[in-house]
Amino acid sequence: MRSLSHRCAVQEKELEGEDKISTSMTSLDFDCIVIGAGIQGSFTAYHLAKNKKKTLLLEQFLLPHSRGSSHGQTRIIRKAYEQDFYVHMMEECLQLWTLLEAETNTKLYRRTGLLVMGPERGQSFKLFKDTLKRNNVPTVSLERGEEFSRHIPHVTLRNGEGAIVDTTAGVLYADRALRAVQGYFQSLGGVIKDGEKVEDITPGSVVTVTTSAGVYRAKSLVITTGPWANALLSHTGLQLPLTVLKINVCYWREKVPGSYAARKRFPCFVHVGEEWFGHHIYGLPSNEYPGLVKICYHTGSETDPDKRDRQTDRSDIDILSQFVSRCLPGLDPEPAVVETCLYTVTPDHHFVLDRHPSHSNIIIGAGFSGHGFKFGPVVGKVLCELSLGQLPSHDLSPFKIQRFQNRSKPRL
Ligand SMILES: Cc1cc2nc3c(=O)[nH]c(=O)nc-3n(C[C@H](O)[C@H](O)[C@H](O)COP(=O)(O)OP(=O)(O)OC[C@H]3O[C@@H](n4cnc5c(N)ncnc54)[C@H](O)[C@@H]3O)c2cc1C
Ligand SMILES: O=C(O)[C@@H]1CCCCN1
């Protein structure tokens, strides 16, 4: 994955760093430094602090901020997936979310169920259905027609479309969750330094991190910088095949206020299959903004995270308008509010949870591909385990860097 010339440059840098440390340091500042206080870095720091490790969480912006991927009021949490390994991770995740609710006395999860709908004979719908059944996830299958409309009013299911509800699913209160996990980390003695951008990393048996305000050293480093993952990894001689996408987060007005409301038991939903130009469309019941339903397209246009406001493509919104007109006739088919969020996408849409291939005390959590929030508690746990040199408590084979062997971005 790395060129020879660059490997040499990194080794030189390491030696320089180790040299500096041996002359100027007598003790370490921290057991572990985590870069990036989004949901993944914050949960990693939380688990490290629970393991009694002296931990520093660095964030480039003043907290809270809305420039990355973890802001906004809501996210979907679900067991409905096409792959077993996500369902397995979700078992423990649900327990850990409940634990955080108890630890911080904060309501973070509202159970609404998740309606999976799409062409019944399509590969994607079948995969969702089979995975739910195989893993004994509680579900309700709904027949198109009177039965479906009685349970889920104001949604049009077309001829040939199937519907299955994952009854364990619901909404996570995202901003609240981020505050809760960061607050609990601090209550355990963890240190958060926000408004401090990491400008350099010197790998070595002691890792040195230079920010806009200081220099810190630790035995291990965790990089969870979301859309800026490659910017940080460039200091370590590694680039991953990640694409940053700007997502238009659209809210659509109810014609009759409350008709798609969480309090009326309207579920989260995902329309799967190839029909909408090859990408899923998903939504959450009206809740955070009264009378507005959040519905998004599961892709967007490529962007630089520092220049995202220059990306003005709205072709996804045209697709969503068509979807709303066709499937959700109780909504005005023009978005009332459009916010922005970023995805960092891998070629197979699975996460990266792994050690750096050349520096075993640098751990990487990246490429959450628009579906990582719900897994924060388990992602944080396994990144913590990797940074402590422990055996991870989940099978991380789907998340290894090795899988990109022939697909990495141009070498540095
Ligand atoms: C519109 C939208 C809808 C989504 N819906 C869902 C959903 O329903 N369910 C779900 O599970 N997931 C969902 N996701 C995905 C989920 O939100 C992300 O996977 C998750 O938030 C990624 O978190 P992160 O910590 O990796 O990244 P981020 O939240 O971006 O955190 C990275 C942090 O690193 C900081 N950083 C970067 N560079 C530096 C530096 N040099 N120095 C210091 N700090 C730095 C950044 O400022 C940032 O705060 C959605 C995402 C979007 C955008
Ligand atoms: O992670 C989720 O649950 C949402 C809905 C489906 C597409 C990805 N984002």
TrEMBL record:
Catalysed reaction, written as an equation: L-pipecolate + O2 = L-1-piperideine-6-carboxylate + H2O2 + H(+); sarcosine + O2 + H2O = formaldehyde + glycine + H2O2
EC number of the protein: 1.5.3.1, 1.5.3.7
Cofactor(s) essential for the protein: FAD
GO cellular component: peroxisome
InterPro entries per the UniProt record, alphabetical: FAD-dep_OxRdtase, FAD/NAD-bd_sf, MTOX
Class of the enzyme per the UniProt entry, highest EC level: oxidoreductase
One of the GO BP terms on file: L-lysine catabolic process to acetyl-CoA via L-pipecolate
Family that this chain belongs to: Belongs to the MSOX/MTOX family.
Protein name: Peroxisomal sarcosine oxidase
